[in-house]
Amino acid sequence: MTDAHDDTSGAPREYIAAIDQGTTSSRCIVFDRDGRVVSVEQKEHEQIFPKPGWVEHDATEIWTNVQEVVAGALAKARISKEQVKAIGITNQRETTLLWDRATGEPVHNAIVWQDTRTDALCRELGRNVGQDRFRRDTGLPLASYFAGPKIRWLLDNVEGLRERAERGEIMFGTMDSWVIWNLTGGTEGGVHVTDVTNASRTLLMSLRTLQWDEKICNSIGVPTALLPEIRSSAEVFGTARGGALDGVPVASALGDQQAALFGQTCFSVGEGKSTYGTGTFLLMNTGPKAINSYAGLVTTVGYRIGDQDPVYALEGSIAVTGALVQWMRDQMGLINSAAEIETLALSVDDNGGAYFVPAFSGLFAPYWRSDARGVISGLTRYVTKAHLARAVLEATAWQTREIVDAMKKDSGMELTTLKVDGGMTSNNLLMQNISDFLDVPVVRPMVSETTCLGAAYAAGLAVGFWNDVEDLRANWRRAAEWTPQMDAAERDREYQFWLKAVNRTMGWLDEES
Ligand SMILES: Nc1ncnc2c1ncn2[C@@H]1O[C@H](COP(=O)(O)OP(=O)(O)O)[C@@H](O)[C@H]1O
Ligand SMILES: O=P(O)(O)OC[C@H](O)CO
After folding, report:
1. Which of 253, 281, 351, 308 is nearest to 468 (CA)?
2. How far is CA 221 from CA 140, 147, 165, 203, 228, in A?
3. 432 contact partners, CB below 8 Å, separation of at least 6
4. Ligand 2 within 6 A of 422 CB?
5. Does residue 427 have a known ligand-binding role?
6. Where are the alpha helices (DSSP H) in 167-213?
7. 25 is in an annotated binding site
8. In sequence order, which ranges of 314-441 are alpha helices (DSSP H)?
9. Which residue's CA is minimally distant from atom 10 of ligand 1?
């Protein structure tokens, strides 16, 4: 079936397949031993908005899409399943699904990470249990972003579900668990597992023991019978049963942002990356030490390879970056394509005095304010849509600056270069803005599909396809670099205006609203 043979021995070449179950789409990418993309297949799924602030996905549609993209990627690569040495999984994090153990049917749509329906529940938990307790033990602020409160909401709102859960009839999973369980046989013996990176986004796992914290589970109201076994990010969980990859070991799982950290080969303390997609997530490797954040970041597990020590990371999560460009296109109709934002912004020299803070679902790091809502500040009649386009791009760059400042406060480490990836990195003006506002060089690698690459790397390490992380480092190659060009006084002046605009978003919603 294949025409892909090793040049020297004539043996069929070997590959790793990675599945990225993301917020807007599922994709499968086949990689070769040099970490090069051999084929890609991708399929979008429906975004379901039942009420303002609510976002859901149909997990059955997602599983169908995953099977299709896997078959499609293999067909495009013109390789057989025997040539695929392992499957790696990466996924949108925090998105929460409960399904019936016996039938495999989801009991409700998955509740997506962006969904804010658990705001009130989080406030109540904060009053009853205390914010500090969650931050100290799980590394996370108590916010609707994370999975634990979403599970509680489902148990409280789907009739009879709590009783079924307590009888052990229900399974919880983030999308890694759902994909792995289905891939490995589903109701016919599928394995119910998650990895430490995904578990570290639930508000239910102790960062110290890397196991479910029973007391915290009780305080949120989540029975532990629901929960998957927590495993490392790189080990063989089981073997695919049926489908295009029947018989291939499933050998990694990482949340997508941790996978990008891995794919960008940020293996040393102080190395970090920022992924610019719907939202933006900047992670910095802090080594075997979990650093508590006092500056509004999240402490999370970066990765764990087999039984090696875990590697922790500090994360700055920004909810709305590329989503603001989508909003300018879809809701405002000011541009026809995402790429057009750059052309429009380049038609003027500056923002004309306008600052746009896209607090559409409150503000995530470093503020964690669910009462904030978006503002455009500094408007005069002078401002045109081109100035707004500038303000839209600058919003992403200033939000990155705030995260980098918080990283410095928490870790005492200075970022010397920022590695970037994700859909927005094709925007040169934005990349220049980021370099200017941070005053550090910004670099983008040749393989921009770092999320899938990270999952492939972890799976490849687990099955001995690659020997160690040094093998992987050798694959990283720079494709583009932007260096700071901005005058320091101007940077400081602009930053003060940005911070003033951020201040104006706060307190828009009160308990009543
Ligand atoms: N040239 C561009 N300039 C600015 N934003 C862009 C550009 N191209 C894509 N985007 C934004 O990037 C996002 C898509 O990036 P991607 O990495 O695929 O996101 P995700 O993985 O979150 O779905 C969209 O929100 C889109 O608006
Ligand atoms: O699927 P993405 O790329 O939008 O990533 C979503 C993040 O994992 C949310 O925490």
Report:
1. 308
2. 17, 12, 11, 12, 16
3. 482, 485
4. no
5. yes
6. 175-183, 196-199
7. yes
8. 322-330, 340-346, 385-411, 428-438
9. 424
- For the record, the structure tokens of 285 come out as 């490797």
In angstroms, what is the span from residue 5 Cα to ligand 2's centroid? 36
Residue with CA at minimum distance from ligand 1 atom 20? 277
Q: What is the pLDDT of residues 252-301, one digit of tens each?
A: 999 999 999 999 999 999 899 999 998 999 999 999 989 999 999 999 99
- Is 27 known to sit in a ligand binding site? yes
Whole-number Å distance, alpha carbon 384 to ligand 2 midpoint, is 32
**In the 8-state DSSP scheme, what is residue 418?**
E
Neighbours of 353 (CB within 10 A): 14
Q: Is the Cβ atom of 113 under 6 angstroms away from ligand 2?
A: yes
Assessment of whether the complete model's pTM goes beyond 0.80? yes
Residue closest via CA to ligand 2's atom 4 equals 23
Tell me 351's DSSP state: -
Residues 6+ apart with CB under 8 A from 504: 357, 375, 377
231 token code pair: 């495993």
ipTM of the complex, rounded to two decimals: 0.98
Of all protein residues, the one whose alpha carbon is nearest to atom 24 of ligand 1 is 322
* Cβ contact 335:341 at 8 Å: yes
Beta bridge partners of 30: 17, 39
256 labeled part of a ligand binding site: yes
Q: What is the pLDDT of residues 463-488, one digit of tens each?
A: 999 988 888 998 888 889 999 999 99
